[in-house]
Amino acid sequence: MSHYPSYYKSDAPANYFNKTFIIALLSLLLLIAITSAAHAHETPVVHSHERDEAVSTNTMAATSNAVSEETLLAQNKQSVTTSADLAISKGDAIEQFVAADFTKRQTMLNQWPGSVESLDTLVELIKNDELYQGNGGQTYLLNSEDELFTYPAKQLTTEWPSDLAQVTLTNTLRSALVFGQAKVKLESNDPTQRLQAVAILADNIEQLDPALISTAATNEQDDDVKTALSTLQARIDFRDGDVTTQIAALTVLADSDSPQVLVDVKKALAADDIDPVLKSALLDAEDSIEQRITISTWIGHLFTGLSTASILLLAALGLAITFGLLGVINMAHGELIMIGAYATYMVQNLFQAYFPSMTGWYLVAAIPVAFLVSAIIGMIIERIIIRPLYGRELETLLATFGVSLILMQLVRMIFGAQNVEVSNVDWLSGAYQVSSSLVLPFNRIAIIGFTIIILMLLVYLLNKTRFGLFVRAVTQNRQMARAVGISSARIDMLAFGLGSGLAGLAGCALAQVGNVGPDLGQTYIIDAFLVVVVGGVGQVWGAVLASLGLGVSGTVLEIGIGAVMAKIVLLVLVILFIQKRPQGLFALKGRFVD
Amino acid sequence: MRLTQLLSDSPRNAILIGLCFLVLLILPWLHLLPETSSFHLSAYWITLIGKIMALAMVALALDLVWGYAGILSLGHGLYFALGGYAFGMYLTRETAGTGLPDFMRFLSWTELPWYWAGTQHFWWAMALVVLVPGLVAFIFGYFAFRSKIKGVYFSIITQAMTYAAALLFFRNETGFGGNNGFTGFTTLLGYDITASSTRAVLCFTTALALLLSYLGLRYLMSQPYGRVLGAIRDSENRLQYLGYRTLWYKLSAWVLSAVIAGIAGALYVPQVGIINPGEINPVNSIEMAVWVAAGGRGSLIGAIVGAGTINVIKTYFTVAYPEFWLLILGGLFVVVTIFLPNGIIGVLDRFKKEKE
């Protein structure tokens, strides 16, 4: 880690590290604020069905989703109101649609009179079976709890109309809707909307009018949309054309990584008596597409692994510090993570109550709060419980486990045993679509980024500041450090506070990807321990490597054998690894013999 | 060695301890008295006493490795549960008769997995109760001790192992009843498992097993073997310099401990009527360590006292103030480790010394 002589060179005042500490904290906040602000501007609007896909790609977010059904509903309602407002200004298209007869509906779908959003809302409402028609042609919304609302006023009605009919779509209307939606979006000024339109059209290639695509392709300026359109064009040519057209189309299609295209190609290959030239082209295309899909799938896995690794690392970093410095196994570390998550929850509630216009930014405020709350509780624990047990590590383990039980129960008594709801902030929901088979959710990207920032700040704090110097001095030789005038008790407390604060930051980040409940800490604590054990005592870089190894290999194993078996295999692997390197990846060098 | 010596170091305590065990051996039979009798012991109490005695056995087993050899296991719940599952297999087969156990039929399995072979025989099940925890402990212990994993590391690894096992047992396809485990037992060796006489015999057997394991371990610890274990706890390196192969001492103590825990599990299951993966939950195993710490490490009677005391408190609080139980348990962890390094027995000893 560092070199002894450097300790003797520094001669700054004794409480200098306090200042450094505060500066480091502030710069952390600043950095996060800057990155998140930058991020917020870059975020493209993502269509809801892509968001769903993105969420389902990672199981954790999916579980958090399942819990927050109510929010989804609430969000849904919100979007209904806003788009309703828009639609009213254009003479409410949804209401007209419901009141109309079959032919009129078909025309409306082909020539949608309202805004894109109102069309999206209509699709959403019909998909969720929420749209109803009263006997006089009025529009009603029925939510999943069987409460009936008038539309667009959104008033709760207790008087149910005598014959309430659900608005459904016949197949004809459905395809009309698909094209209506795509047409409206194809003419949008926003390239993302146009890209979505192409995706919608690609899903319904059977009924597609080739002329529409070729016109759109010639008029298109944006590169991404142009590529998407030409792929679509090639798919149409491939389906309908003669052998020469098909071969020509294949040269375009071979560059695709879309599973749909692969299905087309495979279907063509399965046919009897294919032209030999076409066949070889088909085989080439199949190889190339499959290869692309494999690559992007693996990049996806790697990304998931990386984000798992950064979660592990966040949970384990604080543990690595407390273990390294004090030789203390802090079993309450998981509960400090949980407290960080609950602090985030509290900040969110405060924002919702007092600054409703800025709820999207609560996360930025929650970061320092989570850090401080956990750090203070950690320092109290160190003062009261760990100090008397110093040097008796097994006893510390038991005592801190007691603390973890107490904290868990207290949280249960204060907040209830149920999971509480921490909503994803707007600028972290959604996903970045790299290609048709690779989608990266923003909250995962943010966690990776956040972890890297924390890691850099921590390394800076430990290696470049006076506080870090003292921490390292106490870690390596407590007696010597005290002899040169370092107050080791104070360093112990502050370092424990730092470790606990890192747990709080982990909790803040984890609240964005998983459930927040009293058992949150238990979920991560064993994994965090494994990272520390594999990484080696008190080794920041050891923890980094170990969490990378465990996170990525865990994800890869999960693909093959399922989550639970992967966990078991991983634990067995760790036990075997410990056989080879009992001191972890990086052992603290020392000459201690009892 | 005289029996009083085997019971305790001081003759007066020996009489006390002897009396306590005598009471434990007699209590079960009170259940057979008619219900109108004022000495009648209800089914609730006899089950509770039997259950706590089984848990006290695990505490004894843990004290052997932690108190004497200085190896803190945070995974003894696994050995306990393995013994319980092994005996539970027999009970399940007995309930199911010639057919498949219910939970397998629900999964539409057509035949028993290979590891269920022979479990319909009582003696094979009894053998499994000893063999399975023993074997698992041997394999795990051999690798762990050979690579000199010690202290906190060892504790964490045992915890991870227990966690892995819990995950495994939670799976339906493992063939151990998944989430629900085994329950709904009807007969044991052909006798009705809920009959008064069966309960009394089971409770008595547990008391006997507890007494025997206590005496056995006390005897063993008074022998050179016990001294070597103590030396390993205090300074394993120096012992190795003297030429002792500490691996085998630790390993044998570890396996013995696991076997005792397994037997305790086997006695526990028919009395409470259920075994499920919840028993393998790492928290349970850590709780066991607190029983030992609270009673007093390194004195076998302390483990029994600790397990007894805490479980009595637990029984009371989980019924009377369920929401406070975790606070109290947590507080116990903290108070015992900070203020009572030698546990309840240590406090008693200190009083005695002050008197003298």
What would you say this structure looks like, in words?
The complex is a heterodimer of chains A (594) and B (356). By secondary structure, chain A is mainly alpha-helical. Chain A contains 25 helices and seven strands. Chain A is 71% helix and 4% strand. In chain A, the strands form two sheets. In chain A, strands 4-3-2-1-5 form a five-stranded antiparallel β-sheet. A two-stranded antiparallel sheet of chain A has the order 6-7. Chain A is globular and about 90 Å long. The two termini of chain A are 24 Å apart. Chain B is mainly α. In chain B, the strands form two sheets. Chain B has a two-stranded antiparallel ribbon with strand order 1-4. In chain B, a hairpin with a 2-residue loop joins strand 2 and strand 3. In chain B, helix 2 runs antiparallel to helix 8 and helix 4 packs antiparallel against helix 6. The model of chain B has no long low-confidence stretch (mean pLDDT 84). Chains A and B meet through helix 18, helix 23 and helix 25 of A and helix 6, helix 7, helix 9, helix 11 and helix 13 of B.
**Uncertain segments of chain A of ≥5 residues (pLDDT<50)?**
1-18, 34-90, 590-594
- Percent of residues in helices of chain B: over 70%
Overall average pLDDT of chain B: 84
Strand content of chain B: under 5%
Secondary structure category of chain A: mainly alpha
Question: How many DSSP E strands of chain A?
Answer: 7
Q: Which two chains form the greatest contact, residue counts included? A: A-B, 45 and 47 residues
Features:
heterodimer, A: 594 residues, mainly alpha, 5-stranded antiparallel sheet, two-stranded antiparallel sheet, 25 helices, globular, disordered N terminus, B: 356 residues, two-stranded antiparallel ribbon, 14 helices, 72% helix
